[in-house]
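User: Continuing from earlier, I have the next pair ready.

Assistant: Great, send them over.

User: Here they are, in order.

Assistant: Folding the first of the pair now:
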Amino acid sequence: MSAYVLRRLLYAIPILLGVNLLTFVLFFVVNSPDDMARMHLGGKRVTDAAIEQWKVDHGYALPLLFNAQAEGGDKLTETILYQKSLKLFQFQFGQSDSGRDIGYDISQRMWPSLAIAIPTLLVGLLVNITFALLLAFFRATYLDFWGVVICVTMMSISGLFYIIGGQYLVGKLLNLVPISGYDTGWASLKFLVLPVIVGVIGGIGAGTRWYRTLFLEEINKDYVRTARAKGLAEQWVLFGHVFKNALIPILTGVVVVLPLLFTGSLLTESFFGIPGLGSYTIDAINRQDFAIVRAMVFLGAVLYILGLILTDISYTLVDPRVRLE
């Protein structure tokens, strides 16, 4: 197992290097530090002296790849590539263009993101699997037909509709919970209820339809016909055999999503005023704070690769056909 995990981690290194270099090209070659300085200082009429001073203050006055004026190893380390990109591999995110410590902001904002994402994932998983099993049990009936129609309809509706509709109905008309905002400790629960409900409802259509497809695919296999031929009740066949064997693709989707819960939801956090990493990224884009955007892109890539590795490992736990060499 340890050799397998190590091999998967080594595969991740060139992928992260590619993501890092691509991000570097986009932010420092296509969009040069001079362009960033002009955007922050207010347009085309800014003086060259002001541009140079802004670059010095924010660490963008260094050469891109090679510092010929430095000595020894500093020729490579005293560059924008090393200071702004390669240091991300050490999880040294540095300062934002507005002067804030990005690492500290991430450590503070990750908790509101997780407070929304984890309950939404768990409750949504329970609701979607329950509805999917119900439709699979009553397959080829009117309940199954109209259930699929409702799922497709819900999939066709934008997520913004659920957010705005939930805020208007639950927050404004019924006045049950606050429309937006956040607090610390147990007082934050009243601010998390509505985002979680909206997230669960918004995912019912796609989730139920996906799991229903998995269950119906398992139902048509030989082992299910054998179980029925032995006289097992349909409920036992569905829950004891079909559900168990459908766990492999279900586990794949869940494990891949787990690390990405850390980065939060861009739309949900922005509309509900939750100070998580999703709204942190949106605010950075609006302010054109590219230091934060670079850090979040790299962090998202790391977490996504971690999710893929966890998925590969989880296969060995639920599928006896998988063997590690």
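And the other member of the pair:
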Amino acid sequence: MALSGVQIFKYLPKTNCKKCGHPTCLAFAMKLAAKQASLDACPDASAEAKQALGEASAPPVRPVTIGAGDGAVKVGDEICMFRHEKKFFNPSVFAVAIKDTEAGDAAAKKIEAVKASEIDRVGQHLKVDAIAVTEESGDPAKFASVVKQVVDDAPGVPLILVSINPAVIEAGIAHCADKKPLIYAATAENAEAMAKIAKEKKASLAVSAAGLDALIELSEKVKGMGVEDLVLDPGARKAKDMIEQYTIIRRAAIKKNFKPLGYPVISFATRDDAVSETMAASIGVMKYASIIILNNIEKWKMLALLSLRQNIYTDPQVPMQVAQNIYKVGEAKEDSPLLITTNFSLSYFIVRGEVENSKVASWLAVMDNEGLSVLTAWAAGKFTASRIAQFITESGADKSVNHKELIIPGYVAILSGALEEKLPGWKITVGPREANALPSFLKGRA
């Protein structure tokens, strides 16, 4: 049974040392009770406290780390059913499958695609996270050779070893045990052998069974063999089954604290048709899959999936925003145009991107409006003539340019007259309403 904050508080040192990052031990206890903190954050917790609170303070979905070093990815460690309740924490991991029959050039092509997959979207670097080497040949030596190729060519990329044959897994993990791979998968037939490998190599282990009842039995069995870091595969491959079974697993873990299902979920979204694969992967992102395996990672597909993942794993209660500043776009000089927008990340990066596309070096004044878009900030009274004038004056924008012309978004053209009153000597120019019209607007002024 879960302990209350007051019950947890009794086991804490009560020194209010703040080493855990919280102002008091009671505040920390409340966070532990809400599954929003880990007991590991308290360096002074006694052995008795760790024993008594270890299970009670553990997150309902166990955290599992795949890989080692800077490239390692963390999955699980989630505490809510819906992102608006608190937010989702560890984004779904995308992994591309490389069959052991694709050794050589075919494998090298996919490896390069993973290394070149990074995109920059609203200030965040998004990419394909892992590679799943999949046994198709039945030959441990072939499997091991592809694993070695991946390790040699992409040493920092986390690995998933996919085979139900323990001999194949042993051959492959010999080349990457220090990389902390995920082994897929233990089944009812091979559980003992797979658990033995996972324990010896300190690797995480996926358990796979057809249906939730069999999965529960298998996860308990493997945990009883001493493997703690588990990943679940209930065998769902159709969209309907994915939604149903992944939701049941998450609900059992979060709402019922049902430990046999309190692990991250792996989803095989692999399809021959690229559009169908993208749709299946999208369901995984939205419905609790922590690891998603894909056959291919075409640019268009990953742009869609990475953007979706970014949105799902963004805190909906905290607007994405950039720091207030006067930003230099290109080789801006004193006579370069000066534009203004709000600090909503999407607004900033879209506007900046279009200014860059124009090839007209410019200054971009980004004003703090608590992360609101232009129209929303204007409607909320946070993007007014008075506030803009104060920002321009205090920012020292006039030191960056040798002119006094400010280009404002077309959607707030109504502010132009008031701004000229608030900024004596400044010329206020109304720019286009939509950012995609900025290139032609700026070129037309050059």
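Worth noting for the second one:
The two ends are 70 Å apart (CA to CA). The chain has three domains: 5-55, 64-312, 325-445.
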